[in-house]
Amino acid sequence: MRALRVVALLESLSFAVLLVGSLLKRTTDLDLVPVLGPLHGALYVALVVLVLSCLSQLRWSWWFALVMLTVGSPGAHFAVRATRTDDGRSEPERHTVIR
User: What spatial distance separates the first Cα and last Cα of the chain, rounded to whole Å?
Assistant: First the structure.
């Protein structure tokens, strides 16, 4: 699950950077898309593989997983972060220290 969360975050960030790179390609002579595109694609493939391998742990239905992977980067990242783990807590709650 930790690998899925990391890949989901990296994939979302790569999507945002790719959007900026696409904008720069259209407005300047800087073309980062040939580098950023395959990187984003590889991270997306890793995200799909990890979501499918962790589907039972995520407790997502097959249609919800399909929608999240179709929506892509931002949707999948936030859905993975909000998903409760086997102990009933989401990842951010797990690291909260109660005094």
Answer: 27
Task: Provide the residue-wise pLDDT of the chain in tens; the chain has 99 residues.
Answer: 888 888 888 988 898 899 999 999 999 999 999 999 999 999 999 988 998 898 888 888 888 888 888 876 666 767 777 776 555 555 444 444 454
pTM for this entry: 0.73
The contacts of residue 64 (CB under 8 Å, 6+ apart) are: 79
Query: SS3 for the chain, per residue?
Result: CHHHHHHHHHHHHHHHHHHHHHHHHHHCCCCCHHHHHHHHHHHHHHHHHHHHHCHHHHCCCHHHHHHHHHHCHHHHHHHHHHCCCCCCCCHHHHCCCCC
